[in-house]
Design a protein that fits this description.
It contains 15 helices and 16 strands. With 371 residues, the chain is of the alpha/beta class. The strands form 4 sheets. The chain has an 8-stranded parallel sheet with strand order 4-14-13-12-11-10-6-5. It is globular. Bound molecules: ligand K75. The ligand CC#C[C@H]1NC(N)=Nc2cc3[nH]c(NC)nc3cc21 binds next to α5.
Length: 371
């Protein structure tokens, strides 16, 4: 733990990196998976459980928290960490993606975005400066720049315009963020699936000398090979000595292949959202507990797991709970899935330290296929 924000590279294995991000509220072991805590809660989990599974950091969303409970109220209540009782690092997304994906966008110009709340239809305006101000009121440890997230499909001209706007907004966010030694503001590389725009965005952001960089605009439904190609295009132009965060990614397979390409940090709703809908991630692949074939299967999800949800409950019971739409079903599968995701990241970190990441990746993928 340090008074400043520091990223150290501890080991590499090919392009895979083992590192750690240290800051006053704690250290993030990378490669890291960040459970998504959109409105100040990792749905269906107690945050003590999330911590016990090995999470070093969780993600919050500026868009949702600005709508309720509101940033000034959160500040009056002592900040997000105090409110939700999570004393460890929190990364907050800036709102750009949620305005595009959730809100009713009314206007977008150089100043910022004006949108209608998906909660109550009220109009809100968010500028790069206001997004950073909100993330400051939340006392966020890693704050994301406000970016323009253009809805796909979009023309190359649209993608370029949004990427250039996001670069100008990154500069304004840097100015608004100022100098906060124990915190960081990350830039977000844009450019859609157009290589020269990705390179331009990464190079221009690198010149701003920010403390970390995200790759945005992926994991929005494109084929995995397109996502991987964009990572291969972008990473060489991202500073080696800064953390690299792939936003919204992903499945266990996505993360293995992205670590192999030099990515350090991930966030995704997959383990939590799909858990609530009956999908279990295990060392032997995915299991959809809604399926009738589990109705009398008394085996646990994974008797070798350290997680009670994977070890102590039968698939038959989980099937029953999911079919009956009982809360406990989603709770147990969320617990199992986050446990699997954190165990996978721990295995990745150890494999990189020991110089055997390629073998670890191949064995992991074989076990999924074995079922
Ligand atoms: C264009 C763009 C962009 C990125 N910009 C910001 N601020 N947040 C994101 C969150 C994401 N989640 C997913 N997939 C679920 N892709 C994302 C991309 C972004």
């Amino acid at each position: 733990m340090t008074e400043t924000f520091q990223f150290k590279l501890l080991a590499t294995d090919g392009k895979a990196r083992r590192g750690e991000v240290s800051m006053p509220r704690g250290t993030i072991r990378t490669p890291a998976f960040m459970p998504v805590g959109t409105v100040g809660t990792v749905k269906a989990m107690y945050l003590d459980q999330v911590r016990d599974l090995g999470a070093d950091i969780i993600l919050g969303n500026t868009y949702h928290l600005m709508l309720r409970p509101g940033p000034e109220r959160v500040a009056r209540l002592g900040g997000l960490h105090e409110l939700i009782r999570w004393p460890h690092p929190i990364l907050t997304d800036s709102g750009g993606f949620q305005v595009m994906s959730l809100a009713g966008l009314r206007k977008l110009d150089e100043k910022g975005v004006t949108f209608k709340s998906h909660v109550d239809g009220a109009l809100h305006h968010m500028s790069p400066e206001r997004s950073i101000e909100i993330q400051g009121l939340l006392d966020s440890d890693i704050q994301m720049q406000l970016d323009e997230c253009v809805a796909l499909p979009a023309s190359p001209k649209e993608i370029e315009r949004a990427m250039e706007m996001s670069l100008r907004w990154a500069e304004r966010c840097k100015t608004a963020f100022g100098d906060q030694p124990g915190k960081a503001m990350f830039g977000i590389v844009q450019g859609g699936d157009i290589p020269h725009l990705r390179v331009r965005s990464a190079q221009a952001l690198a010149e701003l000398n920010l403390k970390g960089y995200a790759i945005g605009g992926l994991a929005v439904g494109e084929p995995q090979e397109v996502m991987l190609d964009m990572i291969d295009t972008t990473v060489p132009h991202m500073p080696t000595e800064k953390p690299r965060y792939l936003m919204g990614v992903g499945t266990p397979d996505d993360m293995l292949k992205s670590v192999a390409r030099g990515i350090d940090m991930f966030d995704c709703v997959m383990p939590t959202r799909s858990g609530r809908h009956g999908l279990a991630f295990t060392r032997r692949g995915r299991i959809n507990l809604r399926n009738a074939r589990h109705a009398e299967d008394m085996r646990p999800l994974d008797e070798e797991s350290t997680c009670p949800a994977a070890r102590d409950y039968s698939r038959a019971y989980l099937h029953h709970l999911i079919r009956a739409n009982e809360s406990l079903g989603g709770m147990l599968l969320t617990w199992n899935n986050l446990s699997y995701y954190q165990d996978l990241m721990a295995g990745i970190r150890t494999a990189i330290e020991e110089g055997r990441f390629a073998d670890f990746m191949a064995e992991t993928q074989e076990n999924w296929a074995r079922g």
